[in-house]
């Protein structure tokens, strides 16, 4: 049994203990918990299309905060980028999408979504805008309507990485052939 102490004699440790006791019995609704303490939403595997990896991401990001990078085409000033992305944000707001916008460069902005499940619908809207050069979502770059033709091809297929890998493989094979120690080891 704890001693009864006058409330005026409580120190910081006593107040912390009192707060813990008070919060222990407190029922906090699930929606009021911070995102990292909420239980993950159950995933319905029947809705997953194995041919589309985006469907898996869409279901796993549902209810979680997600950020996407948007690049404005041309050479806009920061003020122009602010105006253009503000129009996009307003259109998304009118379509009932909760999106916050942060300008991070003269032609780049971050769109933060409270519910990541809608990210791919918002991405589809953005890439169909005339001044949208590209949208980066979950590490994947999607070219927009405003992208130059060579950028559209480069972003879709990523041939540079494949070419670099092939060149590296060729170099490593030629090094193996020229290296005498390697050749002797292979003979053994």
pLDDT below 50 for ≥5 consecutive residues: which ranges? none
Q: Strand count, sense and closure of the main sheet?
A: 5 strands, antiparallel
How many helices in DSSP terms? 7
Please state the structural category. Answer: alpha+beta
CATH class of the domain at 52-146: Alpha Beta
Question: Whole-number average pLDDT?
Answer: 77
CATH topology group of the domain at 52-146: Alpha-Beta Plaits
Radius of gyration: 27 Å
Q: Look at the structure and name the CATH superfamily of the domain at 52-146.
A: ACT domain
Question: Please, could you describe this protein's structure?
Answer:
The termini are far apart. The protein is 45% helix and 15% strand. The chain has seven helices and five strands, in the order H-H-E-H-E-E-H-E-E-H-H-H. It has a domain at 52-146: Alpha-Beta Plaits, CATH 3.30.70. The chain has 188 residues and is α+β, with helices and mostly antiparallel strands. The chain has helices at 12-24, 53-60, 78-94, 119-127, 149-157, 159-178, 180-187; strands at residues 66-72, 99-103, 108-113, 132-137, 140-143.
